Structures are given as C-alpha cells and as structure tokens.
Amino acid sequence: MRIRKVEAVPLRWPIQSSGHERVSDYGPHDEAHAVIVRVETDDGLVGHGEVHPGYGYTRGACWSLKAIVEKELGPEIIGEDATQPEYVWEKMYNGPRLGIALTYGQSSPRMGRRGVTVCAMGGIDMALWDIYARSLGIPIFKLLGGGFRSRLPTYASGGHAAAEEAGEEALTYIAKGFRNVKMRVGAMDAPRIVADGIARIRAVRDAIGPDGELMLDAHGSLNESQAIRLAQEAEKFDISWFEEPVSSDNWNGMRRVREATSIPISTGENDFTHFDFRDIIAHEAADILQPDLAVVGGFTAARRIGVLAHAANLQVAPHIWGSALLFYASLQLAAALPNCPIIEFRQGGNPLFTELITPPPAIDSEGYVTIPSGPGLGVDINLEAAEEKFPFEGS
Fold first, then answer.
1. What is the pTM of this model?
2. What is the band of 210 on the pLDDT scale with cuts at 50, 70, 90?
3. Rounded to an integer, what distance in angstroms lies between the CA atom of residue 98 and that of residue 294?
4. How far apart are CA 119 and CA 103, in angstroms?
C-alpha cells in the first residue's frame, strides 16, 4: 500500500464582526483558516489530516504550508508504505540523514526541525494513521493501542468577554450543556492585568458556581512577575489549571511560576515534537501537557509525548483550536492515552468547526463527547464539497 499522492487544501471562512467582541492579545481576525492534508495510496485508500501554525498567522502561512506539504515533504515520501507512519515521520524529520538516524539510533533532523515544517509533517502523519486504521477497519485509537474510554468530559473554550459581560458569556456555555469553562486572561487585560483579570475570573466563577471546573489561559503573554501575581490572586477561585502563563521561550520562568502557586500549570500548544515536551518535563515546568496534533507533529509525536507524560505522572489535555477534523483526530488521541482526563471544545461559532464534517462535534446532556469508533478518524470529510463551501479565494 504505497503513497501515491500528497496534497494540502487550504480552506477559509470570513468572520463577520458585530463590533462588540473583545479582542484577545492575538489581535483581531477577519477570517478563519484550516489546511487539510489529503494522502492517497496506489490502491485508492485516502486519509486526511490537518495542519496549522498556531495563532497569529496570516493567509500567507497557509500557502507556505501547502508548499511544504506538496513541494518538499510530499515528493520525499511518494512510494513509501502508508502503513508505516512512524518510519515516514522519521524520514520527514531527518531528511537526507535518515540513514544516520536509524543506524546510530539518534535524532539527526533537517534544518526544519521546528516550526511550519513540523506542522506540515503533522498533517501528513495524521493522514497516514487514518489510512492505516481504515485499511484494517478499526479506529485510530485501537491502532495506537488504546481504548481507555468511549466518552470524555469537555470544557467550553472561550471566555474573552470583559468583566461586566464575562459571567453572561460563561452562562451561554452552561446553557449548551457544558459543566467546565476555560477563559482567557493575560495581556488582553492590560494595563490592569491583575486587577481586571481577577474581576473577570470572579464574574465567571460566580456565574458557573462552585462545582464546574474553571481554567485560565494567558497565551504565554505575561512576564513571570505578572503571572505569579495573577495566579496567587486567582487561587481562591479554585482554578483547575493556568495555561501558558509565560512564553514557551522561558521554561525556567514557567517553573518558577509553578513553584509560586498551588494552581496546576499547563502548556504545550506552541511546542514541537516530543523533544520539546521532554524539555518541559525536565524543567519541571508543567503539570499538564497540551500538544496540538496539527502543530506537534501528528499522532506519532503526540503518542510519544503521552508516554513521556505518563512516565512523569503528568496529564495530557490536547490543545484543539482548528477545524472539526482536528477535533475528531484529537478524540482518537484522547482515547489512546491513559492520562487524558478532559478535552477542549472550542466556542465562537466557527463554521470550519461546526459545518465541515457531518455529524458536527456535539456534547451530551452531561457535557461529555462520544469518541467515534468507526474506521480511521471515525468520521469522513468531503473535501471537494468543503472547497466549494469554504473557498480560499482572493489570495
């Protein structure tokens, strides 16, 4: 079963602003994107994955990713066995030094060992695991050795409103059936980062009551002093985790924040490969690891991260801020890991999340999501129809 074709299809949806939204530290956005990878084998099997370089990127990054998938990585793996995704991952990561890496059992990466090249690798890797599992008629989580859960609690991921509206915003999530909420804090509250942040946290906690979990996400936008002050002030609100209090460029600082507060620290959405996560663990910088399949290098890297986390008695809570395809892929990962307690469910009405795949992501009356048990990703995507509905035009 050989790889015959590799392509990347960027999708776009314009965001219509009402003028009332509160802008996060990443600034305003007038459109949403997803880059879907499609891999086809010589016997006609097709798999899909998703790739994105994280927040704060432009439409041009989508073209860059398409070029890396189709012009750089794709040609290198044409003809390879699609049922050997980990071997293909090593080939993409090490490039012309694959022989050295395999002979001596060491990492010998190409120059693109981080950044958009690894993002592109992740999209291809997801598609290969999808093909492999489909060829066996089983879901990816079984191929990864999992099956630890058939459903998983979720948390509503949003929380951008100002203090006077934050409680009302949180109640809209509760009305949908969510029990747990994550809200944004940090530089978006400047110049009164701590005071305004605490006012918004208090409003959300009062709205959702004492039983639901409440998480904070600063997008790595704070310095150590700000993060420590905010965390210590927020402790009385029973916070489940403080996500990315400081930049991923500062693991020592993140460790110091962790040491200064009783709130668990989570991080990882902007980090690449299991090697980065090895360093997070070594620095004792986090309690919860948050790899994003579309950033970290796909299932191959994420499964290795899960093993590292399990050995260090850390939890894994995948970061999911892409399309519905990434959400369903992340459910497969969650079912394959023994240390994944909860899953992110994005808010904000992005049609790439709600309308790309049928059935769309949904929760039950208890705030849980069911993990699909069909072959591969467990869901199917009509990429031709998606291109018509979400055309990447005007570029």
1. 0.94
2. very high
3. 23
4. 26
Q: 70-107: per-residue pLDDT in tens?
A: 999 999 999 999 999 999 999 999 999 999 999 999 99
Q: How far apart are CA 329 and CA 299, in angstroms?
A: 9
Neighbours of 61 (CB within 10 A): 18
Which residues are the active-site residues?
319
- What is the per-residue pLDDT for 395? 47
276, 117 Cβ separation under 8 angstroms: no
The number of beta carbons lying within 10 Å of the beta carbon of residue 89 is 24
Peptide bond into 109 cis (omega under 30): no
Q: How many C-beta atoms lie closer than 10 Å to residue 377's C-beta? A: 25
Residue 351 to residue 361: CA distance in whole angstroms: 11
Q: Strand 46-51 and strand 31-41: pairing? A: antiparallel
What SS3 string covers the chain?
A: CEEEEEEEEEEEEECCCCCCCCCCCCCCCCEEEEEEEEEEECCCCEEEEEECCCCCCCHHHHHHHHHHHHHHHHHHHCCCECCCHHHHHHHHHHHHHHHHHHHHCCCCCCCCCCCHHHHHHHHHHHHHHHHHHHHHCCEHHHHCCCCCCCEEEEEEECCCCCHHHHHHHHHHHHHCCCCCEEEECCHHHCCCHHHHHHHHHHHHHHHHCCCCCEEEECCCCCCHHHHHHHHHHHHHHCEEEEECCCCCCCHHHHHHHHHHCCCCEEECCCCCHHHHHHHHHHCCCCCEECCCHHHHCHHHHHHHHHHHHHHCCCEECCCCCCCHHHHHHHHHHHHHCCCCCCEEEECCCCHHHHCCCCCCCCCCCCCEEECCCCCECCCCCCHHHHHHHCCCCCC
What value does the CA radius of gyration of the chain take, rounded to a whole number of Å?
Answer: 20
pLDDT tens profile 34-45: 999 999 999 999
* From 7-21, 312-326, 356-370, the region with the lowest mean pLDDT: 7-21
